[in-house]
Amino acid sequence: MERIVLDSSTSREWQFTVPGGTARISKTGTMLSVCLPYKAVYGMGEKFDRLNKKGFRVINKVEEHFCEQGEHAYCPMPFFFTDSGFGLYVDTGRVTVFEFGAEIHIYFKADAVRSIDAELPAWEPQTEKAPWPDGTGVVLFSGSPAAIIQEFMSLSGPSLLPPEWAFGVWISANRWHSQEQVFQQLTLLEKHRFPASVLVLEAWSDEATFYIWNGAAYTPKEGGECFAEHDFDFSKSTFWPDPGSMIEKLHGRGLRLVLWQIPVYKPAAPEESIQQNIDRTYAAEHRLAVQDQAGRPYEIPQGHWFAGSLIPDWTNAETRRLWFAKRRYLLEMGVDGFKTDGGEFIYQEDLRLASGARAMINGYAQSYIEAYAGFTGPGRVLFSRAGYTGLHTASILWSGDQKSSFAELQSCLRAGLSAALSGIIFWGFDTGGFAGPLPSAELYLRATELACFCPVMQWHSEPEGGQFAGSERIINNERSPWNIAAAWFDTAEAAAYLEQIRFYHELRMKLVPYLCKEAARCVRNSAPLMRPLVYDFPGERECLDIDDEFMLGPDILAAPVLSPRCISRTVWFPPGTTWCSFFDGASYSGGGWVEVPAERIPVFIREGREIF
Q1: In this structure, are residues 241 and 322 in contact, taking their beta carbons and an 8 Å threshold?
Q2: Residue 289 domain-assigned?
Q3: Which residues have CB under 8 Å from 294's CB, separation 6+?
């Protein structure tokens, strides 16, 4: 691993030896060019449109894009590597553009280009640094995909290992907004004999402060003061009359609780939340929010999610102290983690942080989840939609919002595999899609099969009345298995369908010991848990473009069904290996493509290995 730092005052051309040849690197103005032999290029964060990015232009920019993300990304990274063994990381929070043509061109903003050390000295990353200073460094890598990803991840620090319960089944729906509805889910889990280990609540708070349970009575406090649990009277709440006992009951049933968060000081009408107005005013007066060039609090522009809100400056120690002091009582109640949604709220570069650095469009989301990681500590989880370089040190990533369609299911898998080749170890998606009319029974089953073999298995859905919610036939858009079954089948058929879905939930729980063992190994080795075949078999040209098969750890090969009405599909088996079908024990020799039955998801175990 070597580092160059861009500067017009030093040499403009370098050579770098890689396994597949020599990379010639040159700088012209604000463009860096790399000339080397390569057939495929991977990385660039969680990208939905393609795995192999050769021949395409990729913009490295954190964006909130609702459904059908295409080239947009919640969690991009300015990092890539080629099949010829060359890797490159641009150490910047600025927006950059990568063109992967016959040559690779990387474009920087003019004022982001700082210096280059022509001698390419070995570089040891700092253990602590301000978020992305104005300078731009370029780190070069050479070796196998595993070696390059490991070195890239080491720049940010050690990976976070989630607790064992995070590898079970997660259940979630935005429409759950009361304690009664939570208990209904416990009843339905028991009635339908479905296991679960995590329950996520989005509609739990007043959605003004995002730290007070909806319906709680309290006396407002000054902006610099914080609440304890005993400051709230929950008894008359029609939503959460006793959240503390609810959490105890969840824990007693083996479920952990994760609560939704948004990093904003939202504008609120007095009748909506007096406390929120106090907090927002205090944040503005004490410069706890991101500032514009004139020293005024930056507001999210109109036309965007949470328009008009101020956003916390996570580089300000007082912001972090007060923000989390107001939420500490939630951890004391037993909350097990946070769904750190949002964070894609910087829409211009000329903003200021307390650290003196500019508020980077890309760096903000990562500073948000790193701040939460410091607050929650070990034994809890963060489940984040947006992030940037270093996400593996702080959070699990989920793919954000997609419609319920096979096309979106395909893009989700590409996103997960692209994320894996960018150093993201733990990732999941919303089974069957988040938005729109309910998924078909077939789509939901195929998505459940895929989710069973992903690092995180979760079902979730948009709120009633969401952007694509509802149809004449179906009003309840919850993506629970029993709601899907009731929507599409009569009673007898629904029972049979639920049996199919239950099989994969129960199988998932049986896989937890394997997942925990491999997760620990991946954290030690800085390796993705779920990864494309090119990671484990980099010398095989046939797998360069395979984006619909993956390894889960070293022993499970999964080839999910991503199209409707499929009863078989082709699977590529790596040479020199023998694989046994997970479900019927059939044996397949590696070294080519084989047509396999696909009534169930084709999954194979490396011969001689035991999973359970």
Answers
A1: no
A2: no
A3: none
Mark whether 503 and 565 lie in a shared domain: no
Question: For the chain, how many structural domains are there in total?
Answer: 3
- Residue type, position 513, single letter: P
Judge if 328 and 225 occupy the same domain.
Answer: yes
Residue 454 lies in a domain: yes
396 vs 159: CA distance, rounded Å: 10
Q: Write the pLDDT tens digit of every residue in 178-222.
A: 999 999 999 999 999 999 999 999 999 998 999 999 999 999 999
Q: How far is CA 177 from the centre of its chain?
A: 24
CB 601 within 8 Å of CB 450? yes
Tokens 């211009």 appear where?
A: 348
Q: Which amino acid is at 324?
A: F
Q: What distance in Å separates the CA atoms of residue 224 and residue 239, rounded to the nearest whole number?
A: 27
Question: Are 315 and 130 in contact, with CB atoms under 8 Å apart?
Answer: yes
Q: Give φ, ψ of 191 to 5 degrees.
A: -60, -45
- For 118, residues 6+ apart whose C-beta sits below 8 A from its C-beta are 4, 10, 11, 14
- Helical packing angle, 481-488 and 491-525, nearest 10°: 150
Instruction: Name the residue with tokens 């022509």.
Output: 118
Contact 102, 76 (CB under 8 A): no
Helix (H/G/I), strand (E/B), else coil: 292: strand
Residues 541 and 146: their CA atoms lie apart, in Å, by 17
Separation of alpha carbons 443 and 462, rounded Å = 17
- In degrees, rounded to 5, the angle at the alpha carbon of residue 168 between the alpha carbons of residues 205 and 499 is 105
Phi, psi of 15 (to 5 degrees): -125, 145
pLDDT at position 592:
93
Cα 398–Cα 395–Cα 62 angle in degrees, nearest 5: 60
| Residue entry with tokens 């009843």 | 187
The answer on 458 and 319 residing in a single domain is yes
CATH number, domain containing residue 477: 3.20.20.80
Q: What is the pLDDT of residue 127?
A: 31
Q: Residue 214 carries which side chain, given as an amino acid letter?
A: N
**CA of residue 213 relative to chain centroid, distance:** 26
For 90, the enclosing helix (H) or strand (E) is strand 86-91
Please give the Cα distance from 175 to 204 (Å, whole number): 10
Residue range 557-589, pLDDT digits in tens: 999 999 999 999 999 999 999 999 999 999 999
Give how far the C-alpha of residue 188 lies from the chain's centroid of Cα atoms, to the nearest Å.
28
Question: How confident is the model over 374-408, as pLDDT tens digits?
Answer: 999 999 999 999 999 999 999 999 999 999 999 99
What are residue 525's phi and psi, to 5 degrees? -100, 5
Asked if residue 359 is part of any domain, the answer here is no
Look up the domain containing 35 and give its range: 2-154
AA letter at 243: P
The residue from 518, 541, 560 where one domain ends is 518
Here the tokens at position 128 are 């602590």
Return the ∠ at Cα 75 (arms to 433 and 337), rounded to 5°.
Answer: 70
Statement to judge: residues 186 and 149 lie in one domain: no
Distance (Å, whole) CA 465 – CA 288 = 34
Is residue 205 assigned to a domain? yes
- Give the angle 234-238-243 at the CA atoms, nearest 5°: 40
Tell me the per-residue pLDDT of 290-313, one tens digit each, with 9 for 90 and over. Answer: 999 999 999 999 999 999 999 999
Residue 131 sits in the same domain as residue 211: no
pLDDT at 4: 60
Model confidence at 131: pLDDT above 90: no
Give, in degrees to the nearest 5, the angle at Cα 263 between 165 and 96: 95
